[in-house]
């Protein structure tokens, strides 16, 4: 039997997993997407839940914490336990001024400006599973966009923002490049679906609490729909 150090499973793990960073979002999505959710993990405050999803198939929702190092630990242990399809369901700050607060974007590539994905072997940018990402954008539910993953949330280095924008980044976040790098390293099918929770330029603005909750529900529904419609990996 596979044993893990940081995850202490108390329920079965599904082969398909949604990974919010925020434990509170994991609980919200479990309540909205799962019938009779069971606690999968509560060790280290990384709440996770497993249950039958609205499409009738098993789904695990497991928080990763903030940043690439924490995400890498959780994602690696999920892979060890048998996860095969993982969709990050998180938030981002938009550089692209055509993006609106509450809008959903599906990352078609991540610029690896963080240390964790580079340590995992990522080059300047890394891409997700094509079919799973296409399922996220099907029907216009999410906009396809390039994101940049960084290590710092409070980062005042505007010169770096300019560089990332020139490289094609529409938004910034912290975990997507790590997920994609582990997808390559561990033969996982990965994708990243993000709420625009902040506008970075030209002036900073943040989404309200009610608007964020509504967006989180759309986030979960869209990610589950993509998992349900994208082909399962071959054995």
SSE topology:
Blueprint: E1 16-19, H1 23-33, E2 34-41, E3 48-53, E4 58-62, H2 68-81, E5 85-94, E6 104-112, H3 115-119, E7 125-126, H4 130-137, E8 143-149, H5 158-166, E9 171-173, H6 176-186, E10 189-199, E11 205-206, H7 209-229
Parallel strand pairs: 1-4, 1-5, 5-10, 6-8, 8-9
Antiparallel strand pairs: 2-3, 3-4, 5-9, 6-7, 6-10, 10-11
Helix pairs in contact: 1-7, 2-6, 4-7
Note down, in words, how this protein is organized.
There is one protein chain. The mean pLDDT is 95. A five-stranded mixed β-barrel has the order 5-9-8-6-10. It is globular. It has one domain (16-229): Nucleoside phosphorylase domain (Rossmann fold). It contains seven helices and eleven strands. It is α/β, with parallel strands linked by helices. It starts with 15 loop residues before the first strand and ends in a 6-residue tail after the last helix.
């Amino acid at each position: 039997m596979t044993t893990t150090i940081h995850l202490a499973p108390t329920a079965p793990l599904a082969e398909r997993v949604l990974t919010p960073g925020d434990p509170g979002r994991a609980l919200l999505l479990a309540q909205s997407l799962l019938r009779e959710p069971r606690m999968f993990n509560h060790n280290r405050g990384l709440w996770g839940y497993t249950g039958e999803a609205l499409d009738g198939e098993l789904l695990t929702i497991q928080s990763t914490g903030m940043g690439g190092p924490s995400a890498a630990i959780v994602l690696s242990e999920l892979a060890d336990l048998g996860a095969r399809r993982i969709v990050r369901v998180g938030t981002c700050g938009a550089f692209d001024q055509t993006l609106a607060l509450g809008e959903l974007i599906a990352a078609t590539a991540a610029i690896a400006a963080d240390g964790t994905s580079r340590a995992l072997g990522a080059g300047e940018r890394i891409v997700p599973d094509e079919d799973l990402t296409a399922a996220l954008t099907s029907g216009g539910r999410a906009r396809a966009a390039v994101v940049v993953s960084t290590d710092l949330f409070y980062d005042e280095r505007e010169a770096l923002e300019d560089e990332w924008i020139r490289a094609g980044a529409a938004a910034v976040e912290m975990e997507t490049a790590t997920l994609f790098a582990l997808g390559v390293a561990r033969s996982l099918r990965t994708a990243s679906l993000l709420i625009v929770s902040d506008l970075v330029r030209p002036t900073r603005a943040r989404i309200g609490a009610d608007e964020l909750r509504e967006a989180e529900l759309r986030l979960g529904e869209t990610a589950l729909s993509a998992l349900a419609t994208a082909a399962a990996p071959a054995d």
